[in-house]
Design a protein that fits this description.
Elements lengths: L2 H21 L6 H8 L3 H7 L3 H25 L5 H16 L9 H9 L4 H27 L9 H22 L3 H13 L3
Length: 195
């Protein structure tokens, strides 16, 4: 692949990410994405066979970026593993707050919408969220190794529970248009992760 090919494909994905994160998958037509991206329809079909394949590629790109962000957190200088984990949740809270004008999490935005519409997108979402939970579990294991997190926590079960808590809090926050649910999730998370 040449550089132009990679950049055009990624440009279409990035443009669609911004639009779909705000409006959802079903309510956004290809013409809207292509007009915003300044790309002709023929170019779209050069990279993607269908809107569904585009949606799957969009989610794959989203997870690739998201997982890289978690990897950076795992490598970041921090006092301990607990601090790294709390930084992750703080980033989540900051990106999903009531004052944030656009949705940034495609998992929150699209999970319920596309799970019954597209099996390939559902599987991409499932596999991506499983990878996120695995990274959170690794952060918990790191905190247990440096004794900043309780040794009694089961890393995978705790990671699953916390991720589900935060997904739910993000949805409730969208319904109420305030950060109460996310603030409560943070308080619970801090208590759970205390030694």
């Amino acid at each position: 692949m040449n550089i132009r090919h990679d950049n055009t494909r990624q440009h279409i994905l990035d443009t669609g990410n911004r639009i779909i994160a705000g409006k959802g998958f079903s309510s956004v037509g290809l013409n809207e994405i292509l007009k915003a991206a300044g790309v002709p329809k023929g170019s779209f079909y050069h990279y993607f066979e269908s809107k569904e394949q585009y949606g799957q590629a969009l989610l794959e790109s989203y997870f690739e970026h998201y997982l890289a962000t978690i990897e950076q957190l795992m490598q970041a200088d921090a006092a301990d593993g607990r601090e790294r984990l709390l930084r992750y949740w703080q980033q989540w809270l900051n990106s999903q707050c009531a004052a944030c004008t656009e949705q940034k999490c495609l998992v929150v935005k699209l999970s319920a919408e596309v799970a019954d519409l597209s099996d390939s997108m559902r599987i991409t979402l499932r596999d991506g969220t499983d990878q996120i939970v695995a990274r959170i579990a690794a952060l918990i294991e790191g905190g247990q190794a440096d004794a900043s997190l309780p040794p009694t926590l089961e890393p995978l079960a705790t990671a699953q529970m916390l991720y589900q808590l935060w997904l739910g809090a993000s949805l409730i926050g969208k319904l109420h248009r305030d950060s109460t649910a996310l603030d409560n999730a943070m308080k619970f998370t801090q208590r759970l992760l205390s030694r």
